[in-house]
Amino acid sequence: MKALHIIDEGLAHRLVAEQFPQWAHLSVRPVTLGGHDNRTYHLGKDKLLRFPSAKEYAAQVEKEQFWLPKLQPLLPLPIPEPIGLGRPAYNYPYKWSIYRWLEGNTAASVQIPDADKGQLAKTLGQFLSALQNIDPKEGPTPGPHNFYRGGSLSNYDAETHRALRILKNKIDIESAAKVWEAGVATKWQRAPVWVHGDVSAGNLLVKKNPLSGVMELSAVIDFGMLAVGDPACDLVILWAWFEYKSRKIFRDVLPFDDNLWVRGRAWALWKALIITANMTETNAVERAQSSHVITEIIEDYLCNG
């Protein structure tokens, strides 16, 4: 269990007032749908405060501060723009960030018609393709700072098999094990590429196009898991949120070999298994969704191999 630090509005305001007095007059209020790894607050109308909630996430702050300004000009969509780096103070032990606020709702928080998901899949594929084509020289390699996203699936082999044992009477264990073993048996054979590390509906911002009425991808956020390595981990969303038709559209944009998709499906299975098996902190809604994801992955495996 991670030791989470209590970060409230009062602490956030004191830190800002002391270290960024030019913004001391701005209001601080919680973001409606904040994440788990970081506590997030609005600062005025156009800024965002982001505080790591535990030691495990603290190393991500300086990584984002350093790399995001370098990546942004080379990407087709907005990503977070750091405008301030805060220091530990008032018994809060980690560095923290101030970003410009990006408008939009998370894809996880709004109803999106299935007809719009195809375009979202295409745009996301184009974004990840652009990210992967950026020179990875000196980029951070997978490790504890990003929970080995972009690294080998074998890092989670023991955890996955434990989840399978816990769920042995609840899911198709035989098929799930085959999905996992197939992923572990393959490796990324090319040079490392940039990976976001946590491509999820909660980290995609969407807006409705005022002319067409179509929900469009407007920004990609939360690069705490950023690294250079195997891009398979960035495919989890294909099974966790998209459906078959959208997966096909995405795959047409990123036409890598079959092994990439086999590993991506295994990454998605690992995440869904540990949530369903209550091996990680979550909520009832996410747990129910993960059970559906496992079913979706197994159906995909049985139909497509």
How does this model look, in words?
It is built from 10 helices and 10 strands. It is of the alpha+beta class and 305 residues long. The strands form 3 sheets. A 5-stranded antiparallel β-sheet has the order 1-2-3-5-4, sandwiched between helices. A 3-stranded antiparallel β-sheet has the order 6-8-9, with helices on one face. Strand 8 (204-208) and strand 9 (215-220) form a beta hairpin. Helix 4 packs parallel to helix 8. The longest helix is centred in the last third of the chain and has 21 residues, at 284-304. The radius of gyration is 19 Å and the shape is globular. The relative contact order is 0.14.
Low-confidence stretches: none
Enumerate how many helices there are, as a single number.
Answer: 10
Secondary-structure element pattern, one letter each: HEEEHHEEEHHHEEEEHHHH
- Name the average pLDDT: 94
Radius of gyration using CA atoms only: 19 Å
Give the strand order, joined by hyphens, for the main sheet.
1-2-3-5-4
Strand portion:
5-15%
**Structural class, please?**
alpha+beta
What is the makeup of the main sheet? 5 strands, antiparallel
Helical content (DSSP H or I, runs of 4+): 40-55%
- Count the E strands: 10
